């Protein structure tokens, strides 16, 4: 699935929803830093995208970055 997401991003680089889906795929593969980068890129494109913010909080928690995770999850709640 990752190559398809990358191909979609090559065709439409400013696609936050594609970045979120790619991040979820990467996270499922245990590639937390890569997933974090995709969630952050999605938020750079669409700062109020609640799923990206919530998923960022989750992946930060999985990396034991608790204070950052709490901040990201609070931001998601605030946006929602």
Describe this structure in words.
With 80 residues, this protein is mainly α. The chain has 5 helices and no strands. The model has no long low-confidence stretch (mean pLDDT 95).
SSE topology sketch:
Elements: H1 2-11, H2 16-28, H3 32-45, H4 50-62, H5 66-79
Features:
80 residues, flat, mainly alpha, 80% helix, 5 helices, single chain
Number of helices: 5
For the largest beta-sheet, the strand count, sense and barrel status come to: none
The helix content, as a percent range, equals over 70%
Secondary structural class? mainly alpha
What is the compact description of this entry?
It contains 5 helices and no strands. With 80 residues, the chain is mainly α.
């Amino acid at each position: 699935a990752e190559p398809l997401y990358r191909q979609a991003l090559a065709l439409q680089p400013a696609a936050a929803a594609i970045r979120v889906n790619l991040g979820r795929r990467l996270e499922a593969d245990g590639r937390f830093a890569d997933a974090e980068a995709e969630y952050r890129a999605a938020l750079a494109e669409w700062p109020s995208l609640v799923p990206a913010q919530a998923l960022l909080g989750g992946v930060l928690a999985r990396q034991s970055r608790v204070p950052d995770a709490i901040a990201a999850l609070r931001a998601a709640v605030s946006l929602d």
